[in-house]
Specification:
mainly alpha
């Protein structure tokens, strides 16, 4: 999406293509403040200063909670997937805040929508999924735990 003048594929301020891909899978998109803000892993922030990276991540989760919460977060970025999954464990350790939100890459969401078992494509490597895989919300999402 960025730089806007070069990419010209979607609106960088109000993107819709990714949202539409998620909605086609059956997921419901929930807008939230700061959704276009970096998760904290981009630009080597996580490597340079984990505290700053976790501040970014915490702000995103707080914004999601202010919008009513989410059953899962879907991202097209592998760095965001790592930061938002592992970051929850680190935030609890550093700040004492507990979020417990599953994080999926968009390809994983689509695999679930096509009926694949979560363990077939490595969802069992996600920290949040492994901690709560028997919770009822997985059934709501069509995932067999």
């Amino acid at each position: 999406m960025r730089p806007k003048l070069l990419k010209q594929k979607d609106d960088s301020e109000r993107p819709h293509i990714f949202r539409e891909v998620c909605e086609v899978s059956g997921a419901e998109y929930v807008p939230y403040k700061d959704e276009l803000m970096c998760c904290g892993a981009g630009g080597a922030v996580r490597t340079a200063d984990i505290k700053v990276a976790l501040d970014f991540t915490k702000q995103k989760f707080d914004s999601i909670n202010e919008a009513g919460g989410a059953d899962m977060i879907v991202t097209p970025c592998p760095f965001c997937e790592l930061q938002l999954d592992l970051g929850q464990v680190e935030i609890e350790k550093h700040f004492g805040e507990h979020y417990a939100v599953d994080v999926l890459h968009v390809t994983e969401l689509l695999a679930l929508a096509f009926g694949h078992d979560p363990d077939e494509f490595g969802l069992d490597t996600h920290l949040q999924y492994m901690q709560r895989k028997s919770e009822p919300k997985w059934d709501v999402l069509g995932i067999k735990a």
